[in-house]
Specification:
Elements: E1 17-25, E2 28-37, E3 42-45, E4 49-52, E5 55-56, E6 61-65, H1 77-89, E7 94-98, H2 104-113, E8 116-120, H3 138-153, E9 159-166, H4 173-184, E10 192-195
Parallel strand pairs: 6-7, 7-8, 8-9, 9-10
Antiparallel strand pairs: 1-2, 3-4, 4-5
């Protein structure tokens, strides 16, 4: 499908399209889904910084955990919209999620408000931080889980960076490369980053 002269998604004018897809067999619809997406291009350059649709933009971001104060970790779209509208009013134009895949509702709110996102997968790999954290499942499930995260949000114009983890302890570049490969098996259009508080220089392994 080609869009001629599309309306571009931007921070000031977050224009969104809706694609309705149907699967038909024997003349009847057996499955259907609706996908919201936006059209934009961006570049992250060490010298020029971040550009969106060819325009330089200073990223003014925040990091927010997934809980919503007294509402807890349960997703509430109205509360997310209120939270991110307040952030936008403060001048925020970027959000880093932490430390697990965000809810679809959060991504929807950000793309409606014109907020770009770094979407993060994990805060632990094989080495646990607490007794019952994700480290118990990492070896068996990390590849499938991170691919599912990318598949879930790859059509969002808000998402500009994937993060494979934050403050990962006792891990190696080999594991990071495995996760990067998993991400790039689904999406090669966005950079992949790793937040690691253990390194103070470029790692050798």
């Amino acid at each position: 499908i080609r869009l001629d002269r599309p309306n571009l998604w931007s921070m000031e004018r977050p224009y969104l399209y809706t694609l309705h897809t149907e699967v038909r067999a024997g003349g009847r619809t057996v499955d259907a889904t609706t996908t919201t997406f936006g059209v934009r291009w961006f570049k992250i350059d060490g010298t020029e910084g971040f550009t969106l649709n060819g325009e330089y933009r200073k990223i003014q971001g925040v990091n927010l955990h997934h809980d919503l104060g007294a509402l807890g970790a349960a997703t509430n779209r109205d509360a997310l919209l209120r939270q991110m509208t307040i952030m936008k009013g403060m001048g925020v134009n970027a959000l880093r999620t932490s430390h697990n895949p965000p809810s679809p509702e959060l991504v929807q709110v950000c793309q409606e408000l014109g907020i770009v996102m770094m979407v993060e997968a994990f805060d632990t790999w094989q080495s646990p931080k607490t007794t019952f954290d994700y480290a118990r499942f990492f070896e068996a499930n990390a590849g499938a889980d991170i691919k599912e995260m990318v598949h879930a949000h790859k059509n969002s114009p808000s998402v500009i960076i994937w993060s494979i983890g934050n403050e990962i302890r006792g891990q190696t570049v080999a594991t990071a490369q495995r996760l990067i490969n998993d991400v790039k098996s689904v999406d090669t259009t966005r950079p992949v980053v790793w937040g690691h508080d253990g390194y103070r220089s470029v790692p050798r392994d």
